[in-house]
Write a structure and sequence with these properties.
- By secondary structure, this protein is of the alpha+beta class.
- It folds into 2 domains: about 5-35; about 45-135, no CATH class.
- Helices cover about 30% and strands about 30% of the residues.
- It is built from 4 helices and 5 strands.
- It has helices at about 5-10, 15-35, 45-50, 115-125; strands at about 55-60, 75-85, 90-105, 105-110, 130-135.
- Strands 1-4-3-2-5 form a 5-stranded antiparallel beta sheet.
- Strand 2 and strand 3 form a beta hairpin.
Amino acid sequence: MLPALTPSRRRLPVRRALLGSASAALALAAVSSQVAATPAPERPVALADTLRSSSWGMDVPVAWLAAPVPSVRHGDVIDILAVRAGDRPYTVPVAYAVHVMSLDDRVLVLEVDQDDAVAIATARGAGMLLVPLLRSTR
């Protein structure tokens, strides 16, 4: 038979418990100060964060273009013409001073306002191809 434990054996002495909690608090404080001193990794900036108010990002597939996109980069400004080929060809300007957000092999991402978005979508819905024109910076 096992001897019964007395209350003094089941509990830590008060002095030992206080020392243990104090050392744990110091260790926690040291770790917290190291975490606070470590800079947070930078988040990549989302395209939505770069849009001006009352504007949208619009993907224009490269297949919609009648001509290759000039050498553009983020922040360049372009104008867009819509072209209809055939028996009665014609060209009409559809968007002015549109900002380029990005370009890759498949899509041109533009920052457009409501009027530009409607004009581009309407021209494309009518079967017209788009011609991007890079604006001069001078």
